[in-house]
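agent> Task received from the user: take the single chain below, predict its 3D structure, and emit structure tokens. No templates, no multimer pairing.
agent> Plan: (1) validate residues, (2) run structure prediction, (3) serialize to tokens, (4) report one or two observations.
agent> Step 1 OK, no nonstandard residues flagged.
tool_call: predict_structure(input=
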Amino acid sequence: MSLKRIQEAGIEILDQAGLDADELRRSLLDVARLNRWFGGTRAVADLILRLAAARTLSGIISVLDVGCGGGDILRALTRWGARSGLRVCGVGCDRNAQVLAVAAGLSDSRYGIRLVNADGVRPPFRAGSFDFVTCSLLLHHLNPDEVTALLSSLRTVARHALIVNDLERSRAAWAGVWLATRVVCRSPWTRHDGPLSVRRAYTLEELRVLSERAGCARMRWWRGPLFRISGVLEV
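)
tool_result: status=success, residues=235
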């Protein structure tokens, strides 16, 4: 869990400034495709819909997606929520304005998604502003102190649950992601960033420790299929 390990892994292209807009769009579409084909989108959406049903929420539910990238998870959640009789009022938050511009172009008015340019570590939202707060494939972009600060901040924003989904660091995960990015991805940026994401990622035990430091001792973590880790803190 050392900062040195993360620094030595390197910086992902998507974390850099002044990116080419067309290549950025291609890379974010790759991420959406990977999320859809390898279960990341389903993992987050299923948890939200299951918790909404368990708490007998009906009508409108509000969801904040921090580090929303191209907005693919919010769009999927809007579609799947409608099938369950729920209207999802989604807000996507990302600190990269270029990324949000791509998300805006991909999310037409039927989705009703609002986009906010802000840092999730310091979210500009009051306590209990959203029914559910989620972040997917974000933690591996952050160092351990930032992960702790993020979880500590977001747990106060959620009324019902904070839901996290990310990759787990392992040799098998690196090999699997390396292969997947070369088979299904179109952007060389994604082929660079995918395996690097695994090198920067945390293990299950590391995330348990960091969530305890963040005041989220009741957060449940588990391994999912295809090198994914999920965590839920019910409020």
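agent> Step 4: summary for the user.
Strands lie at 59-66, 86-94, 114-117, 130-136, 158-167, 220-223, 228-234.
agent> Done.
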